[in-house]
Amino acid sequence: MPRPLRLKRDGWLGGTACAACYEGLPWITGAAVMSAGAPDARVLLMAGLYSIGAIGIMTLNDFKAVEGDRRTGINSLPVTLGVERAAQIACALMAAPQVVVVGLLLSWGAPWHAAAIAASLLAQVALMRVLLASPREKAPWYNGTGTTLYVLGMLVTAFALRPVVLP
């Protein structure tokens, strides 16, 4: 009998799988249910972008178990890259897709939504500076502040795409 696939043992695979399931699939499923059909390409694009950002969130969640992961052979990004480098990558993974989202929303005629996400991103960047100064200690704090702003940005994006989903 084949052994089960253990994505959690690899920081990139585990984080990507969780991010896709936590962010991408709900976007796609919600849009399909609301529109009673296949989601628009813009919804799929946003689902992909926010899933990429969620890999950063998953990486920050791994900070609480670095020693245990090391002992049990779980190669989370904080274990394989070190806490500081993993924090930098997590921040980049969260910020870069939001920059793209802002640009896309502007090009799709949703300037107020784009502005709200840009403002949220600026606040996140300020919070990221605090996180990066002491990543291990500040990861739980950032999850309660910066990650909340990230999630609110997803909500704003969903409102921007409402005319696409519910024409």
Overall structural class, as computed from helix and strand content, comes to mainly alpha
The number of helical runs is: 8
Mean pLDDT, all residues:
92
What distance separates the N and C termini? 49 Å
Task: Return residue spans where pLDDT drops below 50 for at least 5 consecutive residues.
Answer: none
Rg, Å, rounded: 17 Å
The total of beta strands comes to: 0
Main β-sheet description? none
What global shape is seen? flat
Order of helices and strands: HHHHHHHH
- Strand proportion: under 5%
Helix content: over 70%
Describe, in plain words, how this protein is organized in 3D.
It is a single chain. By secondary structure, this protein is mostly helical. It is 81% helix and 0% strand. The protein has eight helices and no strands. The chain has helices spanning 11-35, 41-61, 66-72, 77-81, 83-107, 111-133, 135-160, 162-165. The chain is flat, with a radius of gyration of 17 Å. The N and C termini lie far apart (49 Å).
